Amino acid sequence: MPWVIAGGGMGNFIPMFLFPLAQEKVSSSTAGILDSLVPIFILLFGYLFFGIKSRLTQVIGAVIGFVGAAMLMGAEGNEGRNDMFHAFLIVLATACYGLNGLIISRYLSGIHSFKLSAVVFTIWFGPSLVILGFSGFFGHFEGTSVQWQGLGYVAVLGLVGTALAMMLFYKLLQITSAIFASMVTYLMPIVAVMWGVLDGEELVWGHAAGGAMILLGVYLIQRKPKER
């Protein structure tokens, strides 16, 4: 149970508050680039605290993937509103994600992903509700159509972007490795660009180059060494 609490706190509860706070003063492109630090933190923490020795190709792949993500985000442009302290909050959140991946992979791999997700949400529901109460939400909510619409969007994000995504991520952690599973942070910008193209946005060379580097990084990380 302690590892479930720790994993849930690192993977959901703490980042859930750090990211919204950070993006008040940090542009979306910068946030996306910093979010791509997760595989780097997994390599670092895995070596320092979990005794995991990464192959050179994995380190190179993580670095290449990060550069690719930075190129992809750079192609989107920067809104010019970045603050060092708030940017550090995102770095702290990605460090939490890295620890969460290692904890799940090492100590909780035997628990079904659905059950693990359900337990994590149940444990952290109470503290989240307390913080929601102190935020003044209940005092300001008047039940207008706009507010209900906003709650609907939040519900969709919570169910699809958090609950379902977390179950899939936990499953990926259990059948692969923490470093490989963390590469989803590199793939998210690619998916975002694809949706943008479908919505009529322009595809520039930076998108293609960044996407190619990300895929190369993923390949290097998951490639198994040749048997001698």
Describe, in plain words, how this protein is organized in 3D.
Residues 5-73, 87-221 form the EamA domain. Its main location: membrane. The chain is mostly helical. It has one domain (2-222). It is 79% helix and 0% strand. It has helices spanning 2-22, 28-35, 38-49, 56-76, 84-107, 113-134, 137-140, 145-175, 178-181, 184-198, 205-222. Helix 2 (28-35) runs parallel beside helix 5 (84-107) and helix 4 packs antiparallel against helix 11. The chain starts with a helix and ends in a 6-residue tail after the last helix.
Our measurement of the CA-to-CA distance between the termini, rounded to an integer number of angstroms, reads: 41 Å
Oligomer: single chain
Q: How much of the residues is beta strand, in percent?
A: under 5%
Q: Please state the average pLDDT score.
A: 81
Helix % is over 70%
Structural class: mainly alpha
Gyration radius from CA atoms, angstroms = 19 Å
Which of globular, elongated, flat, extended, rod-shaped describes the shape?
Answer: globular
Order of helices and strands: HHHHHHHHHHH
Secondary structure tally, helices: 11
Low-confidence stretches: none
Task: Summarize the biggest pleated sheet.
Answer: none
**Count of the separate structural domains:** 1
Number of strands: 0
Protein name: EamA-like transporter family protein
Family: Belongs to the EamA transporter family.
Membrane topology: Multi-pass membrane protein
Keywords: Membrane, Transmembrane, Transmembrane helix
Main traits of this protein?
single chain, 228 residues, mainly alpha, 79% helix, 0% strand, globular
